[in-house]
């Protein structure tokens, strides 16, 4: 009897242990699976809502419109019901997520006489990128340039440094010597010797004349070194502009930091360098004032344009600049 009872109790204990083991195993295998599915669903919701960020509006948080779109209506019932519209291709763009009422207008590269062309067309995501046309350059750099200048041509001298998108061409210096070969070498040598001898003779003659003048009239002033007096340039502006030419007039204006006036003259009168020159000379004369005649000759001399400086001096002062009267 006792042995049967022990056997029955032992069998029940074995069944109890088996039931507890099966119950624990089932709990361990199902509970983590339920948590993982819930976490994944949460991630999907977070990724789906406001991928480009949010902004506040009337106490609510709304999703931003993505790049390439603009806002039509703010969100009302939920964060992700913001209504957006795609920018007009080729006309407008937006480069960043936003809540603006409209897209930005595309930049035009076809401004008259600006010498620009399209490098990259406008898309709904980025603005137009402009560049200088062939044989033109802009010192302010590509992307920010508003007007490109034509490159200098070096037909007679050859190119030392080619024109680039941000710098003008540099020409070789003009050479006035004869061609190569033995005969040319002999001729050049003879000419050099003759010029040196002639220069030496002239130098000695000038020295003698200077000492003679000083001994005869020690108080006489030298007309070569007498300072110029300002004269009225207005009656001679057309003649002075013709002597200067556009290239040297532009150099004079650049020395006075008149870049805006240069661009204005070119844009106002397309493809007319004579009109550019006279208009820019008038503006430079107004800026410089009563001493413009003296300053113009000084600037040309400093830039080694002595021939043009002398022609303008003769036009303004005639034979003796020291005797001219000062004019307002």
TrEMBL record:
Gene3D superfamilies: Death Domain, Fas (1.10.533.10), Tumor Necrosis Factor Receptor, subunit A, domain 2 (2.10.50.10). InterPro entries: DEATH-like_dom_sf, TNFR/NGFR_Cys_rich_reg. Residues 304-328 are annotated as: Disordered. SMART domains: TNFR. Keywords: Membrane, Signal, Transmembrane, Transmembrane helix. The chain crosses the membrane at residues 183-203. The keyword Transmembrane applies. It comes from the Eukaryota. Residues 1-27 form the signal peptide. TNFR-Cys repeats lie at residues 86-130, 131-171. Residues 86-130, 131-171 form the TNFR-Cys domain. Residues 307-316 have a biased composition (Basic and acidic residues). This is TNFR-Cys domain-containing protein. The lineage of its organism: Eukaryota, Metazoa, Chordata, Craniata, Vertebrata.
